[in-house]
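Re: beginner question about structure tokens

> Can someone show what the tokenized structure looks like for a real chain? I only ever see the sequence side.

Sure, here's an example I had lying around. Input first:
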Amino acid sequence: MASAEQQLTELFRQLTAGDQLTILAFAEFLASRRPAGAVAVSKEPVVIPEPEAIERPVEESVVGALKRLAKTYPMLDKTRMLGATSDLVASTIMQGADPVGVIDQLENIFRAHYEKLKSGEHE
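And the corresponding structure tokens:
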């Protein structure tokens, strides 16, 4: 049985050049996530920074939106959103979902996680 790396390489070779770039961009996004670490307990209130104001480009890919949102919300633990975000990216790649609608949904996910963090509801 082929290792996961071999299987990924075989699948990658079957993709179009554009799809290969999408996979690479998504892999870069996944690799850039910071690992979830232990949260230090402090008696001082934790100050949650405001999101970085990065304007959404008129034409933006789903992977580009993920990168933009990761920069917009650097305070969020991206691993907590991985299930929802990867499902949306997959829906675009595999099922041809409308990228604009997917990006809207991604923005809603990031915004909701930010609001939970601000309200202290994060896990």
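Each token stands for a local structural state, so reading them left to right follows the chain. Residues 59-123 form one domain.
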